[in-house]
From TrEMBL:
<feature type="binding site">
    <location>
        <position position="110"/>
    </location>
    <ligand>
        <name>substrate</name>
    </ligand>
</feature>
<feature type="domain" description="NADP-dependent oxidoreductase">
    <location>
        <begin position="20"/>
        <end position="261"/>
    </location>
</feature>
<feature type="site" description="Lowers pKa of active site Tyr">
    <location>
        <position position="77"/>
    </location>
</feature>
<keyword id="KW-0521">NADP</keyword>
<dbReference type="InterPro" id="IPR020471">
    <property type="entry name" value="AKR"/>
</dbReference>
<dbReference type="GO" id="GO:0016616">
    <property type="term" value="F:oxidoreductase activity, acting on the CH-OH group of donors, NAD or NADP as acceptor"/>
</dbReference>
<dbReference type="InterPro" id="IPR036812">
    <property type="entry name" value="NAD(P)_OxRdtase_dom_sf"/>
</dbReference>
<protein>
    <submittedName>
        <fullName>2,5-didehydrogluconate reductase</fullName>
    </submittedName>
</protein>
<dbReference type="Pfam" id="PF00248">
    <property type="entry name" value="Aldo_ket_red"/>
</dbReference>
<dbReference type="InterPro" id="IPR023210">
    <property type="entry name" value="NADP_OxRdtase_dom"/>
</dbReference>
<dbReference type="InterPro" id="IPR018170">
    <property type="entry name" value="Aldo/ket_reductase_CS"/>
</dbReference>
<feature type="active site" description="Proton donor">
    <location>
        <position position="48"/>
    </location>
</feature>
<comment type="similarity">
    <text>Belongs to the aldo/keto reductase family.</text>
</comment>
<keyword id="KW-0560">Oxidoreductase</keyword>
Length: 284
Protein backbone atom coordinates (compact mmCIF):
# COMPACT_ATOMS: atom_id res chain seq x y z
CA UNK A 1 0.00 0.00 0.00
CA UNK A 2 1.12 3.54 -0.71
CA UNK A 3 0.15 6.50 1.46
CA UNK A 4 -0.33 10.23 1.15
CA UNK A 5 0.09 12.73 3.97
CA UNK A 6 -2.85 15.06 4.61
CA UNK A 7 -2.48 18.76 5.51
CA UNK A 8 -2.71 17.87 9.23
CA UNK A 9 0.05 15.25 9.01
CA UNK A 10 -2.31 12.25 9.06
CA UNK A 11 -1.29 9.39 6.77
CA UNK A 12 -4.02 8.17 4.37
CA UNK A 13 -3.85 5.05 2.16
CA UNK A 14 -3.95 5.90 -1.54
CA UNK A 15 -6.37 3.09 -2.33
CA UNK A 16 -9.58 2.36 -0.47
CA UNK A 17 -12.59 0.10 -0.49
CA UNK A 18 -15.98 1.77 -1.05
CA UNK A 19 -19.21 0.19 0.13
CA UNK A 20 -21.80 2.25 -1.76
CA UNK A 21 -24.55 0.00 -3.13
CA UNK A 22 -23.33 -3.05 -1.25
CA UNK A 23 -26.50 -4.55 0.23
CA UNK A 24 -26.68 -4.33 4.02
CA UNK A 25 -26.62 -8.11 4.46
CA UNK A 26 -23.48 -8.46 2.30
CA UNK A 27 -21.48 -5.54 3.71
CA UNK A 28 -19.91 -7.21 6.74
CA UNK A 29 -18.54 -10.09 4.70
CA UNK A 30 -17.36 -7.81 1.88
CA UNK A 31 -15.49 -5.50 4.27
CA UNK A 32 -13.95 -8.42 6.16
CA UNK A 33 -12.76 -9.89 2.86
CA UNK A 34 -11.40 -6.54 1.78
CA UNK A 35 -9.42 -6.15 5.02
CA UNK A 36 -8.07 -9.71 4.71
CA UNK A 37 -6.97 -8.96 1.15
CA UNK A 38 -5.12 -5.84 2.34
CA UNK A 39 -7.45 -2.84 2.05
CA UNK A 40 -6.91 -0.44 4.92
CA UNK A 41 -9.16 2.47 3.93
CA UNK A 42 -12.90 1.76 4.10
CA UNK A 43 -15.36 4.36 2.82
CA UNK A 44 -19.00 4.37 3.90
CA UNK A 45 -21.67 7.02 4.58
CA UNK A 46 -24.84 7.49 6.59
CA UNK A 47 -26.67 7.50 3.27
CA UNK A 48 -25.37 4.01 2.37
CA UNK A 49 -27.23 2.51 5.36
CA UNK A 50 -24.44 0.02 6.03
CA UNK A 51 -22.27 1.79 8.63
CA UNK A 52 -23.26 -0.70 11.35
CA UNK A 53 -22.03 -3.61 9.23
CA UNK A 54 -18.78 -1.78 8.40
CA UNK A 55 -18.21 -1.29 12.13
CA UNK A 56 -18.94 -4.96 12.79
CA UNK A 57 -16.42 -6.08 10.15
CA UNK A 58 -13.75 -3.70 11.45
CA UNK A 59 -14.18 -4.85 15.04
CA UNK A 60 -14.21 -8.49 14.02
CA UNK A 61 -11.02 -8.08 11.98
CA UNK A 62 -9.28 -6.38 14.92
CA UNK A 63 -10.49 -9.03 17.37
CA UNK A 64 -9.25 -11.80 15.06
CA UNK A 65 -5.81 -10.17 14.96
CA UNK A 66 -5.98 -9.55 11.18
CA UNK A 67 -5.30 -5.86 11.58
CA UNK A 68 -4.77 -3.24 14.29
CA UNK A 69 -7.15 -0.30 14.61
CA UNK A 70 -4.34 2.17 13.96
CA UNK A 71 -3.60 0.48 10.62
CA UNK A 72 -7.13 1.17 9.39
CA UNK A 73 -8.51 4.38 7.94
CA UNK A 74 -12.28 4.49 8.40
CA UNK A 75 -14.30 7.15 6.61
CA UNK A 76 -17.96 8.00 6.86
CA UNK A 77 -20.08 10.97 5.85
CA UNK A 78 -22.78 13.23 7.26
CA UNK A 79 -25.94 13.75 5.22
CA UNK A 80 -27.52 17.16 4.54
CA UNK A 81 -30.32 16.52 7.06
CA UNK A 82 -27.64 16.23 9.75
CA UNK A 83 -26.11 19.63 9.03
CA UNK A 84 -26.16 22.46 11.55
CA UNK A 85 -23.97 22.51 14.58
CA UNK A 86 -26.30 20.80 17.04
CA UNK A 87 -27.47 18.04 14.69
CA UNK A 88 -23.96 17.31 13.49
CA UNK A 89 -22.58 17.05 17.02
CA UNK A 90 -25.25 14.50 17.88
CA UNK A 91 -24.77 12.68 14.56
CA UNK A 92 -21.03 12.27 15.18
CA UNK A 93 -21.62 10.73 18.62
CA UNK A 94 -24.35 8.48 17.17
CA UNK A 95 -22.00 7.33 14.40
CA UNK A 96 -19.27 6.31 16.83
CA UNK A 97 -21.80 4.44 18.89
CA UNK A 98 -23.38 2.78 15.84
CA UNK A 99 -20.04 1.71 14.39
CA UNK A 100 -18.64 0.78 17.81
CA UNK A 101 -15.53 2.86 17.22
CA UNK A 102 -13.65 5.25 19.52
CA UNK A 103 -12.77 7.54 16.62
CA UNK A 104 -13.15 7.94 12.87
CA UNK A 105 -10.15 8.60 10.65
CA UNK A 106 -12.12 10.87 8.35
CA UNK A 107 -15.60 12.38 8.42
CA UNK A 108 -16.91 14.14 5.31
CA UNK A 109 -19.76 16.48 4.54
CA UNK A 110 -21.37 14.31 1.85
CA UNK A 111 -22.99 17.12 -0.14
CA UNK A 112 -22.36 20.87 -0.49
CA UNK A 113 -25.86 22.05 0.46
CA UNK A 114 -27.49 23.41 3.61
CA UNK A 115 -25.78 24.57 6.80
CA UNK A 116 -22.33 23.29 5.94
CA UNK A 117 -20.71 25.90 8.20
CA UNK A 118 -22.68 24.86 11.29
CA UNK A 119 -21.92 21.19 10.65
CA UNK A 120 -18.26 22.04 10.10
CA UNK A 121 -18.00 23.77 13.49
CA UNK A 122 -19.24 20.55 15.13
CA UNK A 123 -16.70 18.57 13.10
CA UNK A 124 -13.90 20.91 14.18
CA UNK A 125 -14.92 20.43 17.81
CA UNK A 126 -14.90 16.64 17.43
CA UNK A 127 -11.53 16.85 15.72
CA UNK A 128 -10.14 18.76 18.69
CA UNK A 129 -11.77 16.26 21.07
CA UNK A 130 -10.02 13.34 19.32
CA UNK A 131 -13.23 11.75 18.03
CA UNK A 132 -12.12 12.44 14.45
CA UNK A 133 -8.57 12.31 13.08
CA UNK A 134 -9.38 14.37 10.00
CA UNK A 135 -12.32 16.15 8.41
CA UNK A 136 -13.26 16.87 4.84
CA UNK A 137 -15.91 17.52 2.25
CA UNK A 138 -17.35 15.83 -0.80
CA UNK A 139 -18.75 17.12 -4.07
CA UNK A 140 -17.49 20.65 -3.39
CA UNK A 141 -16.66 22.34 -6.70
CA UNK A 142 -13.57 24.53 -6.87
CA UNK A 143 -15.42 27.79 -6.22
CA UNK A 144 -16.96 26.29 -3.12
CA UNK A 145 -13.59 24.99 -1.87
CA UNK A 146 -12.03 28.44 -2.21
CA UNK A 147 -14.89 30.10 -0.32
CA UNK A 148 -15.10 27.37 2.31
CA UNK A 149 -11.37 27.17 2.96
CA UNK A 150 -11.30 30.95 3.47
CA UNK A 151 -14.17 31.01 5.97
CA UNK A 152 -13.53 27.98 8.20
CA UNK A 153 -10.87 27.57 10.90
CA UNK A 154 -9.71 24.09 9.87
CA UNK A 155 -9.07 23.72 6.14
CA UNK A 156 -10.65 20.48 4.88
CA UNK A 157 -8.16 17.65 4.69
CA UNK A 158 -9.95 15.88 1.80
CA UNK A 159 -12.44 16.62 -0.99
CA UNK A 160 -14.06 13.46 -2.39
CA UNK A 161 -15.15 14.03 -5.99
CA UNK A 162 -16.11 12.07 -9.08
CA UNK A 163 -12.88 11.37 -11.01
CA UNK A 164 -12.72 8.85 -13.85
CA UNK A 165 -11.40 8.72 -17.43
CA UNK A 166 -14.57 10.47 -18.70
CA UNK A 167 -14.38 13.22 -16.07
CA UNK A 168 -10.71 13.93 -15.34
CA UNK A 169 -11.10 17.33 -13.59
CA UNK A 170 -7.50 18.56 -13.78
CA UNK A 171 -8.66 22.09 -13.01
CA UNK A 172 -10.54 20.97 -9.89
CA UNK A 173 -7.52 18.94 -8.84
CA UNK A 174 -5.29 22.03 -9.11
CA UNK A 175 -7.64 24.22 -7.05
CA UNK A 176 -7.85 21.61 -4.31
CA UNK A 177 -4.07 21.30 -4.24
CA UNK A 178 -3.65 25.07 -4.08
CA UNK A 179 -5.64 25.00 -0.81
CA UNK A 180 -3.82 21.83 0.40
CA UNK A 181 -6.97 19.71 0.16
CA UNK A 182 -6.28 16.09 -0.84
CA UNK A 183 -8.47 15.01 -3.80
CA UNK A 184 -10.12 11.61 -3.46
CA UNK A 185 -11.86 9.84 -6.35
CA UNK A 186 -15.33 8.32 -6.19
CA UNK A 187 -16.60 6.14 -9.05
CA UNK A 188 -13.15 5.73 -10.65
CA UNK A 189 -14.69 3.28 -13.14
CA UNK A 190 -17.73 5.53 -13.68
CA UNK A 191 -19.55 2.38 -12.52
CA UNK A 192 -18.71 0.96 -15.96
CA UNK A 193 -20.69 3.66 -17.80
CA UNK A 194 -19.90 4.46 -21.44
CA UNK A 195 -18.55 0.93 -21.72
CA UNK A 196 -15.42 1.78 -19.71
CA UNK A 197 -14.49 -1.89 -19.19
CA UNK A 198 -14.42 -2.44 -22.99
CA UNK A 199 -12.62 0.73 -24.00
CA UNK A 200 -10.03 -0.07 -26.69
CA UNK A 201 -7.45 2.54 -25.64
CA UNK A 202 -7.53 1.44 -22.00
CA UNK A 203 -7.35 -2.20 -23.10
CA UNK A 204 -4.30 -1.54 -25.30
CA UNK A 205 -2.55 0.21 -22.43
CA UNK A 206 -3.42 -2.66 -20.09
CA UNK A 207 -2.01 -5.21 -22.57
CA UNK A 208 1.38 -3.45 -22.50
CA UNK A 209 1.71 -3.90 -18.73
CA UNK A 210 -0.20 -7.18 -18.48
CA UNK A 211 -2.84 -5.39 -16.40
CA UNK A 212 -6.62 -5.09 -16.70
CA UNK A 213 -8.57 -1.95 -17.59
CA UNK A 214 -9.60 -1.62 -13.94
CA UNK A 215 -5.96 -1.71 -12.83
CA UNK A 216 -4.93 0.87 -15.44
CA UNK A 217 -7.64 3.28 -14.28
CA UNK A 218 -6.77 2.92 -10.59
CA UNK A 219 -3.04 3.27 -11.31
CA UNK A 220 -3.67 6.39 -13.43
CA UNK A 221 -5.40 8.04 -10.44
CA UNK A 222 -2.82 6.90 -7.89
CA UNK A 223 -0.09 8.27 -10.15
CA UNK A 224 -1.90 11.64 -10.12
CA UNK A 225 -1.69 11.37 -6.30
CA UNK A 226 -5.46 11.17 -6.10
CA UNK A 227 -6.69 8.78 -3.40
CA UNK A 228 -8.97 6.29 -5.09
CA UNK A 229 -11.94 4.23 -3.89
CA UNK A 230 -12.76 0.98 -5.65
CA UNK A 231 -15.87 -1.03 -4.88
CA UNK A 232 -16.44 -4.67 -5.67
CA UNK A 233 -18.39 -7.41 -3.94
CA UNK A 234 -16.27 -10.06 -5.73
CA UNK A 235 -13.14 -11.31 -4.05
CA UNK A 236 -11.29 -11.79 -7.34
CA UNK A 237 -11.90 -8.16 -8.32
CA UNK A 238 -10.96 -6.93 -4.82
CA UNK A 239 -7.59 -8.63 -5.34
CA UNK A 240 -7.29 -7.36 -8.90
CA UNK A 241 -7.99 -3.77 -7.82
CA UNK A 242 -5.33 -3.97 -5.08
CA UNK A 243 -2.67 -5.18 -7.47
CA UNK A 244 -1.63 -1.78 -8.82
CA UNK A 245 1.52 -0.98 -6.90
CA UNK A 246 4.01 -2.99 -8.95
CA UNK A 247 3.93 -0.99 -12.17
CA UNK A 248 3.96 2.61 -13.40
CA UNK A 249 2.23 4.05 -16.44
CA UNK A 250 4.60 5.88 -18.78
CA UNK A 251 4.09 9.57 -19.47
CA UNK A 252 2.83 8.78 -22.96
CA UNK A 253 0.24 6.33 -21.58
CA UNK A 254 -0.85 8.91 -18.97
CA UNK A 255 -1.30 11.35 -21.89
CA UNK A 256 -3.21 8.77 -23.90
CA UNK A 257 -5.66 8.41 -21.00
CA UNK A 258 -5.95 12.21 -20.97
CA UNK A 259 -7.32 12.03 -24.50
CA UNK A 260 -10.37 10.11 -23.20
CA UNK A 261 -11.56 13.06 -21.12
CA UNK A 262 -15.11 14.20 -21.96
CA UNK A 263 -15.03 16.88 -19.31
CA UNK A 264 -18.47 15.97 -18.05
CA UNK A 265 -19.96 13.97 -15.25
CA UNK A 266 -20.94 10.37 -15.93
CA UNK A 267 -23.69 10.79 -13.31
CA UNK A 268 -25.26 14.18 -12.60
CA UNK A 269 -24.34 17.80 -12.17
CA UNK A 270 -24.39 18.93 -8.54
CA UNK A 271 -25.46 22.42 -9.71
CA UNK A 272 -28.57 21.16 -11.52
CA UNK A 273 -31.55 22.46 -9.47
CA UNK A 274 -33.50 19.25 -10.09
CA UNK A 275 -30.61 17.30 -8.53
CA UNK A 276 -30.36 19.77 -5.65
CA UNK A 277 -34.06 19.18 -4.93
CA UNK A 278 -33.62 15.42 -5.27
CA UNK A 279 -30.56 15.18 -3.01
CA UNK A 280 -31.78 17.55 -0.30
CA UNK A 281 -35.42 16.54 -0.42
CA UNK A 282 -36.26 20.28 -0.44
CA UNK A 283 -39.13 21.47 -2.60
CA UNK A 284 -41.32 24.55 -2.59
N1 LIG B 1 -19.06 11.02 -2.18
C1 LIG B 1 -19.94 10.63 -3.06
O1 LIG B 1 -20.88 11.37 -3.41
C2 LIG B 1 -19.80 9.26 -3.65
C3 LIG B 1 -20.59 8.89 -4.76
C4 LIG B 1 -20.44 7.61 -5.28
C5 LIG B 1 -19.49 6.75 -4.74
N2 LIG B 1 -18.74 7.11 -3.66
C6 LIG B 1 -17.72 6.20 -3.07
O2 LIG B 1 -16.85 5.75 -4.09
C7 LIG B 1 -16.85 4.32 -4.13
C8 LIG B 1 -16.64 3.82 -5.56
O3 LIG B 1 -17.63 4.32 -6.43
P1 LIG B 1 -18.79 3.40 -7.05
O4 LIG B 1 -18.92 2.18 -6.25
O5 LIG B 1 -20.00 4.23 -7.23
O6 LIG B 1 -18.30 3.11 -8.52
P2 LIG B 1 -17.02 2.43 -9.25
O7 LIG B 1 -15.99 2.10 -8.24
O8 LIG B 1 -16.69 3.32 -10.38
O9 LIG B 1 -17.65 1.13 -9.87
C9 LIG B 1 -18.07 0.05 -9.12
C10 LIG B 1 -18.60 -1.00 -10.13
O10 LIG B 1 -17.51 -1.54 -10.88
C11 LIG B 1 -17.48 -2.95 -10.77
N3 LIG B 1 -16.07 -3.33 -10.69
C12 LIG B 1 -15.22 -3.12 -9.65
N4 LIG B 1 -13.99 -3.54 -9.95
C13 LIG B 1 -14.04 -4.05 -11.21
C14 LIG B 1 -13.09 -4.64 -12.06
N5 LIG B 1 -11.81 -4.76 -11.69
N6 LIG B 1 -13.49 -5.07 -13.29
C15 LIG B 1 -14.78 -4.92 -13.67
N7 LIG B 1 -15.74 -4.37 -12.91
C16 LIG B 1 -15.38 -3.92 -11.68
C17 LIG B 1 -18.28 -3.29 -9.54
O11 LIG B 1 -18.98 -4.51 -9.69
P3 LIG B 1 -18.94 -5.73 -8.64
O12 LIG B 1 -19.19 -5.16 -7.27
O13 LIG B 1 -20.04 -6.61 -9.11
O14 LIG B 1 -17.59 -6.33 -8.79
C18 LIG B 1 -19.27 -2.13 -9.44
O15 LIG B 1 -20.42 -2.42 -10.21
C19 LIG B 1 -18.24 3.96 -3.54
O16 LIG B 1 -18.33 2.60 -3.15
C20 LIG B 1 -18.34 4.95 -2.43
O17 LIG B 1 -17.58 4.53 -1.30
C21 LIG B 1 -18.88 8.35 -3.12
Amino acid sequence: MEYTILNNGVQMPKLGFGVYQIPVDETKEAVLNAIKIGYRLIDTAGAYKNEVQVGQAVNEAIKAGIVKREELFITTKLWVSEYNEQHAEKAINDRLQKMQLDYLDLLLLHQPYGDIYGAWRAMEKSLNAGKLRSIGVSNFDSGKIVEFAKLVSVTPQVNQLEFNPWNQRENDEEWNRKYHVQPEAWAPFAEGRLDLFHNEILQEIGNKYNKTIGQVVLRWLVQRNIVVLAKSVRESRMRENMDIFDFSLSESDMNLIKSLNRNETAFFDHHDPIQVERITGWTL
